[in-house]
């Protein structure tokens, strides 16, 4: 069984210039570029909405940030974001995309939102990720991306429910924090459910140690 790095929703609309900008999100791009070569399998999720998506305040003539009851469930209304094939949907140019071997898409149904790449709000599969992880025999996921308190959170909670080992690379994620402390709350919740919290530094160090010991062996 092997491990994968899963990059969640690192798309222009969630970055500093985007429609749903997550504070300080640009800071994680160089870090993710440096992490990718440490993993044999690197996957990315994309929020992939049609123009009239259920989560857009514009569809309901409501204000961004309000909650609305839609199909019997509470939905936070967002600015229009991540519309398929538009600029906000794309990865930033500064992301070293060559390391990403597969992308998974969610939120494609105009009437159903999905923060998680595993299951949508109706609890139906949101993407083909489960089949893929099974085929590739991946049992452990390392998570980076956006946003800690929404899509990272729901993706991690579902991954744990499904029995994957999950490590959150804490400095590789950023939260929206609509309410102050939301990000911290999400991190505590994911940890309590069984996720490990790691700092990128620990991963770089482990990788360096294993490489340097190999070099040492050869020189002897
Ligand atoms: C997200 C709000 C709406 C996310 C996606 O990627 O965290 N947040 N759609
Ligand atoms: Zn969305």
Q: Would you mind describing this structure in some detail?
A:
- The chain is α/β, with parallel strands linked by helices and 220 residues long.
- Helices cover 27% and strands 22% of the residues.
- It contains 5 helices and 8 strands, in the order βαββββαβαβαβα.
- It has helices at 28-35, 129-135, 148-161, 182-192, 200-219; strands spanning 2-8, 42-47, 67-70, 73-76, 102-106, 138-146, 165-174, 196-198.
- The chain has a 6-stranded parallel β-sheet. Strands 3-4 form a two-stranded antiparallel sheet.
- Helix 3 runs parallel beside helix 4.
- Mean pLDDT is 94; it is low at 215-220.
Secondary structure tally: strands: 8
> What's the order of the H and E elements?
EHEEEEHEHEHEH
Approximate helicity band: 25-40%
Which ranges are low-confidence, i.e. pLDDT below 50, for 5 or more consecutive residues?
215-220
* 3D shape: globular
Query: First CA to last CA: what distance?
Result: 32 Å
How many helices does DSSP assign? 5
Give the structural class. Answer: alpha/beta
How large a portion of the residues is in β-strands, by DSSP E?
Answer: 15-25%
The biggest sheet amounts to: 6 strands, parallel
Radius of gyration: 18 Å
Ligand types: pyrazine-2-carboxylic acid, zinc ion
Mean pLDDT comes to: 94
Query: Biggest sheet: strands side by side, in what order?
Result: 5-2-1-6-7-8
């Amino acid at each position: 069984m092997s491990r994968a790095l899963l990059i969640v929703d690192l798309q222009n609309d969630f970055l500093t210039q985007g429609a749903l900008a997550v504070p300080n999100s640009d800071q994680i791009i160089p870090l993710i570029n440096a992490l990718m070569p440490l993993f044999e399998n690197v996957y990315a999720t994309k929020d992939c909405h049609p123009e009239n998506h259920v989560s857009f305040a514009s569809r309901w003539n409501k204000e961004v940030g309000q909650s609305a009851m839609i199909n019997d469930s509470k939905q936070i209304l967002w600015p229009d974001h991540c519309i398929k094939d538009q600029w906000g949907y794309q990865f930033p140019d500064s992301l070293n995309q060559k390391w990403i071997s597969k992308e998974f898409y969610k939120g494609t149904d105009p009437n159903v939102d999905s923060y998680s790449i595993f299951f949508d709000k109706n609890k139906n599969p949101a993407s083909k990720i489960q089949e893929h992880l099974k085929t590739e025999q991946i049992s452990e996921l390392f998570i980076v991306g956006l946003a800690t308190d929404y899509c990272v959170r729901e993706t991690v909670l579902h991954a744990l429910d499904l029995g994957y080992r999950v490590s959150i690379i804490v400095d590789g994620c950023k939260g929206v924090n609509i309410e102050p402390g939301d990000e911290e709350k999400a991190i505590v919740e994911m940890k309590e459910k069984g996720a490990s919290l790691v700092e990128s530094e620990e991963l770089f160090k482990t990788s360096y140690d294993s490489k340097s010991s190999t070099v040492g062996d050869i020189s002897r």
